[in-house]
Amino acid sequence: MEMMHLWLVKLCEITLLLFEFVGVFILIIAGVKGVFNYIRKNTNTKLELLKGMALALEFMMGGEILRTVIATGWKTLVIVGGIIAVRLALTFLIHWEIKSAEQEFEAIEALNNQKNDMD
Fold first, then answer.
1. CB 66 within 8 Å of CB 12
2. How far apart are CA 46 and CA 96, in angstroms?
3. How far apart are CA 80 and CA 86, in angstroms?
4. Which residues of 60-76 are buried (b: 16+ CB within 10 A; e: fewer)?
5. If DSSP codes are grouped into helix, strand and coil, which group holds residue 42?
6. What is the Cα–Cα distance from 72 to 5, expressed in whole angstroms?
7. How does pLDDT run across 64-112, given as a tens digit for each residue?
8. Closest CA to 47 of 93, 97, 113, 110
9. How far apart are CA 21 and CA 11, in angstroms?
């Protein structure tokens, strides 16, 4: 039974690192794309950047959930719970911003379509 527990802990640690690596990678890619879109003055730069941040946070949140599996004491669980709470708050904030940016983008597109119809 001890050996199975060690395998579970090792599997969780490896998967946790993989999730965090993927989350950081997605965040870097979204940031680089955001810079290029900003330079090109793309109107949906904010929306694309926010979606990348939200996806990255989801992967990092998955890593934190796995961290609760291998937590050994209450102190560790409280710390992990605090991290999860902060990331959850960030996720809700980002999703709220995404909805706002989508509405803004749709309004801009509607104005552009009206201008094109008038020409």
1. yes
2. 13
3. 10
4. bbbbbebbeebeeeeee
5. coil
6. 12
7. 888 888 878 888 888 888 988 998 899 899 999 999 888 888 888 888 8
8. 97
9. 15
